[in-house]
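Changelog-linked ticket: citrulline example.
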Amino acid sequence: MTLLAITRCISPAMARCELTHVERSAIDLVQAEHQHRQYQQALRALDCEVIELRAEPDLPDSVFVEDVAVVLDEVAVITRPGAESRRAESASVAQVLARYRALVHLAAPATLDGGDVLRLGRELLVGASGRSNAAGVAQLQAAVAGFGYAVRQLPIRGWLHLKSAVTEVAEGVLLVQPQWIDATAFPGFRIIEVDPDEPHAANALRVGTGLIYPSCFPRTLQRLQAAGIDPLLVDVSELQKAEGAVTCCSLIL
Ligand code: CIR
């Protein structure tokens, strides 16, 4: 089955992106655009039809479309991002999603970033990060409970979003950064820990039965390969300067 991947071109204002844990360094826009195109190619290679929204000149972080929606089979929840500078990103993504899903919009005082929401079967795990608050979790819960999803909040320390600390890399297999999240929170899952020398290596994007993974984590890659997982590698070094990685640049339907 062909999947759909919603993406957005990199904003020419990306140099003004939000930064929380990373020191600001010069982003090479030409290189970032090249890497983004390679990322879109990887999505196509994994059988996605790629929708590309036009670049938003005044929204520096708008390439990171993951944060403005939580897309499930039954409904799409349009979030209210934790960073005020990012709130205007939602409208254009909602417009596209409305073609494919019923929409529910989170409202103030809720804040929630899609990067904090990890779906594991019928459970949505939400990182209690600086971006997602209790009202955001409660409104998400109200939006999805009727479809049989349970919502569970998880403490996260050390980095921006839950999915910086844990992602699913194959059915029942989680890639975890144990310094940022407690792996005992996932009973029944097989856990692969990132290599200690690669603290940012836990973010991988599952697309159907495939996996997209940054090319800059060779040691953790070996651990994935030893588990029989063979990801498609992409260079996202310029996006990492904006605290982005691979899940954040698409919404997969
Ligand atoms: C931000 O701080 O919001 C952006 N500079 C990075 C967002 C990355 N999003 C994600 O990993 N889900």
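Closing comment: Example verified and attached. Residues 17-18, 20, 61, 64, 66-67, 83, 86, 115, 161, 242-245, 247-248 surround citrulline (CB under 6 Å). The mean pLDDT is 97.
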